[in-house]
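Good morning C.,

I know you're traveling, so I'll keep this short. The sequence:
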Amino acid sequence: MDLVSSPRIVQVPSGSPNVADRDVVVVADDGPQWFRLRSLTVRGTAKPIDDRAYRLVPKRIVAWDYGSLREVSTPSGGPAALRAPWSDTEQEDDLEAFQSPNLQAAMRKSRVMILTSRSRLGLPLAVPLWFVVSHDGRIYATTSASSWTARNVAVCPQVAVLLGGEGRDCTDRLLVRGDGRAVRGMPPRAVLAQIAWRYYLQPQFAAVDLSHIGLWWKRIRYYGQSQAAHIVVTPKAATEYQLT
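The tokens, ready to paste straight into the viewer:
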């Protein structure tokens, strides 16, 4: 497929900044259960065509579907390990997490967040992640130590989280800005218990998992390719948007 000849039309919420002729990342995400997770990430340049509407000229498209795990050959060599100021253990955060009724409601309703980070060179990366919220309002998400999200957060802690839009008729969005930390290893046990209940153990999700029991070994190998890590986001501010 010729990416240049296949533009996407994107409309942004009222009050959004002007992104005309700027490089942007668009994420389309679907599926609340692990084996039904699908996502499409389009990186390109936004060309204005109407009020709050843009034609996205793709430069790169990445798609994945966890329900279609398959064996692939491992390339020889690979990128050199990046050195970054990782947190090797959990530590107390000095900043108090921003909290508000709207933020708490959005985090309860959303099952997936779009986490945006920046590389050392300022290149943005937006990925959908499962998440849970601790008792003090911090957002936890698991990832791998080799992921670009973890690497980005380790060198540039300023992140943004987008919540909302998971229902067909949902027009509310909440943009959360905060500070992130990349921590090696698994999150605390209380956080792991939240993740297990929220995404795996509830009856409707357990049924989907059991129906894909033949793919469990591939999931184990998928997670075993890299050391575990997790991201901790301390919200600092939240802005509401609505699509009209």
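Safe travels,
E.
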